[in-house]
């Protein structure tokens, strides 16, 4: 790898649309069965530097595009605080787009989205956790279940921008209905409220199968129920919609550790009347099955790739390009969804380190224009639903989790709520 690299196709938008009060950052963490030793964790972070050149990078402005500069020294680990996903300033991004944090038993990684997505980040977290536990306990951990061999050189397939080869010949139109947004009182100091719901994975899976749908479809349908119950209607012709992240690696057989996911929106028009949960599940499951196909995804990828390869766009100076990308994002980005649900699904670890890891968590930050988000990961028999918000009112979390309990699920809740 050269000392610098271009942003992948999905990453192009993130530096352009970031704001002083909003950075597109996500978080992955492993909660261990014992306290973390910071010195050993730093050794593990240092050891991963040669293996993950696309993660140990800083963000810089060029004449026409942003680019990522390879770091020669790993970032220092830091103690975590009560508030996750603290804003990454431009000055911080020019030093490193990656944070490694620790607190009591927890190892956390926070990443600017231009570096990778949740699936790529999970590979990094797994490998970091394995390296830490190997150093801490002197155990040999095989390179399997998403843990990479740290002694290996990075493979070219891990560093590729997989969007270009995945693009189809026909670009899918981005035209769709705008989405309604829930409102609330923003926290003036930027504090983010995080609620983590733990559910037995088997129980959640059985409930979804009982409705003839996937876990993702079930959670989307319940979330739509909550949004429709809480939204101040009418909001013109706006739909209630959930934005679902789709991991394209499974569809296009990619090994990239960079961004390779696309979002699809599923939802309903509240003007048509009320919906039962069964009706919402049928709608969501059908929309996901229709949209998440190789043909549809290739056409969606083509729309993004063709836009970035447009000669006029390419020769625009960066300030002009940033303005154009912000306008595009405003028109076809967050305006099309009411909330995100990003589900990494069931993840495993090598059996050698399973006894040391209690939980894995995945948290995506709130968006710029809607203030709640939801992310999910399952490990060790537990499904962890991370619900985050930048507003004071906990209405959506309460309604959503109450509905899950009413469906017969046993839900354990933790939060970072502060006392006044």
Overall pLDDT confidence: 95
What is the CATH topology of the largest domain?
Chloramphenicol Acetyltransferase
Largest sheet: 7 strands, mixed
Number of helices: 14
Beta-strand residue percentage: 15-25%
C-alpha Rg (nearest Å): 21 Å
Q: Provide the spatial order of strands within the biggest beta sheet.
A: 10-9-11-13-14-8-15
**CATH architectural label of the largest domain:** 2-Layer Sandwich
User: What class do helices, strands and sheet pairing give?
Assistant: alpha+beta
CATH class of the largest domain: Alpha Beta
- Summed up, the domain count is 2
Query: What global shape is seen?
Result: globular
Under CATH, the homologous superfamily of the largest domain reads Nonribosomal peptide synthetase, condensation domain
What order do the helices and strands follow? EHEHEEEHEEHHHEHHEHEHHHHEEEEHE
Number of strands: 15
Low-confidence stretches: none
Helix content: 25-40%
Question: Mind explaining what this structure looks like?
Answer:
By secondary structure, the chain is of the alpha+beta class. It has two domains: 4-164, 2-Layer Sandwich (Chloramphenicol Acetyltransferase), CATH 3.30.559; 168-415, Nonribosomal peptide synthetase, condensation domain (Chloramphenicol Acetyltransferase, 2-Layer Sandwich), CATH 3.30.559.30. It is built from 14 helices and 15 strands. The protein has helices at residues 13-17, 38-47, 90-93, 118-137, 156-159, 163-166, 201-210, 215-230, 249-252, 277-291, 294-308, 311-315, 318-332, 395-406; strands at 4-6, 25-32, 57-61, 66-70, 78-79, 98-103, 106-112, 193-200, 240-247, 261-268, 339-346, 357-364, 372-379, 382-389, 411-415. The protein has a seven-stranded mixed β-sheet with strand order 10-9-11-13-14-8-15. A five-stranded mixed β-sheet has the order 5-6-7-2-12, with helices on one face. It has a three-stranded antiparallel β-sheet with strand order 1-4-3. A hairpin with a 2-residue loop joins strand 13 (372-379) and strand 14 (382-389). Helix 2 (38-47) packs across helix 4, helix 8 (215-230) crosses helix 10 and helix 8 (215-230) crosses helix 14. The longest helix is centred in the first third of the chain and has 20 residues, at 118-137. The N and C termini lie far apart (50 Å).
């Amino acid at each position: 790898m050269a000392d610098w690299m271009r942003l992948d196709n999905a990453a192009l938008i993130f530096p352009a649309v970031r704001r002083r009060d909003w950075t597109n950052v996500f978080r992955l963490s492993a909660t261990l069965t014992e306290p973390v030793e910071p010195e050993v964790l730093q050794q593990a972070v240092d050891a991963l530097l040669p293996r993950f050149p696309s993660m140990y990078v800083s963000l810089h402005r060029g004449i026409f595009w942003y680019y990522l500069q390879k770091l020669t020294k790993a970032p220092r680990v830091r103690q975590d605080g009560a508030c996750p996903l603290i804003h990454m300033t431009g000055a911080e991004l020019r030093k490193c787009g990656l944070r490694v944090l620790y607190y009591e038993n927890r190892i956390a990684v926070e990443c600017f989205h231009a570096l990778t997505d949740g699936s790529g980040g999970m590979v990094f977290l797994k490998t970091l956790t394995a390296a830490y536990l190997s150093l801490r306990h002197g155990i040999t951990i095989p390179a399997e279940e998403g843990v990479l061999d740290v002694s290996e050189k990075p493979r070219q397939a891990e560093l590729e921008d997989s969007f270009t080869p995945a693009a189809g010949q026909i670009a899918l139109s981005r035209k769709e209905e705008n989405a309604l947004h829930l409102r609330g009182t923003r926290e003036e100091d930027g504090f983010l409220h995080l609620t983590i719901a733990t559910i037995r994975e088997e129980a959640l899976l059985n409930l979804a199968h009982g409705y003839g749908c996937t876990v993702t479809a079930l959670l989307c349908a319940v979330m739509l129920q909550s949004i429709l119950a809480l939204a101040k209607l009418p909001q013109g012709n706006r739909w209630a919609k959930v934005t679902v992240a789709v991991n394209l690696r499974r569809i296009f057989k990619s090994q990239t550790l960079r961004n390779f996911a696309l979002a699809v929106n599923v939802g309903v028009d509240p003007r048509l009347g009320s919906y039962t949960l069964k009706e919402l599940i049928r709608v969501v499951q059908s929309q996901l099955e229709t949209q998440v196909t190789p043909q549809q995804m290739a056409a969606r990828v083509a729309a993004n790739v063709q836009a970035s390869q447009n000669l006029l766009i390419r020769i625009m100076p960066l300030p002009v390009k940033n303005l154009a990308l912000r306008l595009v994002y405003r028109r076809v980005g967050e305006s099309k969804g009411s909330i995100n649900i990003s589900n990494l699904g069931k993840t495993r670890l090598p059996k050698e380190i399973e006894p040391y890891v209690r939980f894995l968590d995945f948290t995506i930050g709130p968006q710029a224009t809607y203030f709640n988000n939801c992310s999910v990961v399952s490990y060790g028999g537990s499904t962890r639903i991370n619900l985050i918000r930048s507003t004071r009112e906990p209405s959506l979390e309460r309604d959503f989790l109450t509905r899950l309990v009413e469906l017969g699920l046993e839900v354990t809740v933790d939060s970072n709520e502060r006392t006044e």
